[in-house]
Amino acid sequence: MAIKGLMVAGQVASSKGFWLVDYDNEAFTLTLNTSYAGKTPLSSQGDAVCAGPSGTSFVASEDVVTCLNTDWTVNTDWATSGVYTVSGRTITYLVYDSVNEQVLICSNHATGITVVDAVTGVKAFDYTSCDYLSKPGRVPWLNAAGTEAVISTTPGGGSYHGLYRFDMSDGTQTATLKYAINQMHLRPTINAAEDTLWSTILNAGSYDLYEFTHPAYGYVSTVQTSGGNVIESVLSADETMLFTVATTDVGAYDNLTKIRVSDNAVMATYDCGQNTNIIKKLNDGSLLVTSTTAGADEDGDTQNIRIFNENLVKLAGVYTGDLGGTTQLIDIAESTYVPPTNVTPGEGIYSKKLVAACRNRIWYGTTPADMAELTAAADEIDLTKLFGMAEAYGKVFVANGTVRKVADFTNDKLTTSDIAGGVGIPLHDDVVTGGSSGAQMIIDLITSSTSTCTVYGKRITTAEFTNGETVTGTNADGDAVSFVIATPVANPHWYDWIPYANDAATYGSLPTNTAKVFVSQGRVGLTLDNLYPHQWYLSRQSNPWDWVYGADDTQSAVAGNNTDAGEVGDVIVDAFPYKDVYTVFGNASSFWYMTGNPCQGGLIQELDITAGLLGIGAWCWDDADNLYAVTTKGLVKYLSGFTGQENLTHMKYPDFVKDIAFDRATQRMTLSYDRDNNGIIISVTTLDGGVNTNWWYDLTSQGLFPESYPTTASIYCSEYFNADAAADRTLVFGGQDGNLREFLPTAKSDDDGAADVAIDSYVTFAPIPLSQSPREDGSLSQIDIITGGDNDGGTNDSDALTMTVFGERTAEKVIKSAVNNTGAKLTKVISGAGVQRGSVEKRRVRGRYGAIKLRNTTLAQSWALENINFIIKKAGKVR
Amino acid sequence: MAELLFPHGGYHKGAAASTQPQNTSPDLNNVRPLDNLDDRYRGGQRPGLDRWSTVDLSEGFGSPVVALTTVTVVEVV
Question: Is the ipTM of this complex over 0.90?
């Protein structure tokens, strides 16, 4: 349905203003929108509305022109803040010059016309030659080229009356015709190429536009314009037809007349039954007509805005009560305003921030480049002690021994000194409203229950709270809330994690010495309590400020431990949730998990009593809900739904845990699921110095691959940052040197903070049996290494590899030789990518077992392997 | 002519040296099955560990980043 807006300007003694009317030009229905009634007083002297560029409209208000945007708001792009003032004059008419993008402001003053830039509102010039445009001087006309304009002045004689033509570039008068003019209209060209001006002089007449001479012919009808009534509006219906609108008192005269230009024949009439002022041709070809009072028309309807077809058959009408009275409607402008019914809002309603803890400070940022310090947090945490943080409700909750803090990235901060004590304090989740601003917020936390208080809350309006206003609401107990605020402070904020209103008697107390924060089913949890290491604590659901355990409802705060009845629970190493299903407690020698609401039938069950979690962060989840943990018995995969477990290192690397020799006091272990490359990075980093041992567990091939990083780049922590921008999304690692890093596919070296360093990469193919008999040797020859790439200089071309070949009598010895790089039988550089001439090694290596080691240790180089081809031949008895 | 492919099964030292399982290796470092030159499962050097942000959170003091998390902020529109 095509809906457009009409701006109807009226002038009523008690309520001057303009009105907006929506109309469906397919169904010809009109709907009055009175939102703007009476808000902009209009000139009492004449027409004062015109449509401007790009859907803007101009409305005159006595001696001020206001520029309105397509949404009917003031266009502040205008140089004078959306208004242009012509001091001491009454504006009678506005004309938009689309060629020059100017507005002609006509007034009843010696400075008859002021020409203003329609886009900026800056005045171009005044036209003064025509003297007064006395009441109701009106209807300027512009030629098609926009170079000349003609204005007409009032009927009734006088020295100032007539037609005036002037140059649009500087306002110079170029011609005059001294007649009393009421209306003028450009007649359509019907024969010669003459450009003729239709003008009405009391009744009607025709004049050449440029010469202002020889009336060619005139239309005079006493029916339409007798009795001193004047023609108010003239309009071309098409090239051969003309409509006139005349004012009459009652139904004695027809208001609308359709006239054939060639012979002045009357083709159709309509009696509106009242004074009729303006006729406009709408884009769909229909006619819009306004009247003043609501006299009955030919159809018996009392309306003052009507739509007709070209045969003067009424299609629709609406009566605007606001336009009643005896004064005239002034003008109608059809706006290009299009209601935003098909505008789909953007999806940018949230943003992700990465939050990091480093050197006793908190950092945050939405992109890599904008990582900034939360300065209020500086030195308020002590990172020489255990530290934990977790996100909930747009905030980051911090536990650092006896320090508990909140980094708040979502709330507004209001300060007040008159919080009422007792009843009437704002409660968590109350909605309060600013008395002046209209801004609203959902209360999150207040720091005191009386007098001076800081109020944190999530603002839910675009309107913002203002200094000095009174904020009111009704709290959850039904009591009125009211307090006056000082200047609001935008987030982020940094403050103590306290019970609500800092009222321990009502809202309980947080545990005093913990180092781990986790979130479970809307509860914010704490654990790693130095005095009660088996204990975990969970806040009230959806309220991290309520720590009253055992309240009589299912959302109550709750505390517990993980054990069979009658026993003290195992020491908790880490606690971590998964979705809203599980909270897993990795303990020193066991795993437990909680399902459901602990205050409503939730269960705590054993997951594994044969292994414990090695360290904080020694776990991760994959995208199939499987849990991976480095335990006291190896790398274990706990299957989705905890239906079973699989020890991933038991067969491949029985000494995995023994060789790692993880020491919780001096080392940190981190497991990181890499969703982009489908694998898990297991990092063991020595806290002092950053010496590291790492493994890539490939979930596709289920293989374990050792890795080593520069000590400065060793991994202390990780987070998959699902950033707003796709280019910034990656698995981010916190490094030993304070830098944030990622595995970058295009990077062929590691960053150690100061410079790039080479990656020592190698793989050994061993042992390769060369003989079927324990007493006979074989030989390895014609070794051909095919590396990745097609040697065209592309980015996917492998760099050179060094091939070392070993041959020994036992498998174990050939492996040892390869591992230690001792006893190599031959070495060759495989240069270039793909198949290379001369890359086949023809020398032979003798032994019962062989090994081929490929290696690259060069800065800014990388490689890939297609395959290795070789020939094995008998070489005779073992000597 | 014999052919060897990259040991996708990764590191393995759980069997007798003479019965090293196929597609495994007793000696490798900084290699992964998915090569980073052309994203093919054919084996190659791992990707480099590079800066995600040029901002040094330790401000030159060389202190480690000890914790990371993500916070989601809903905008008022």
Answer: yes
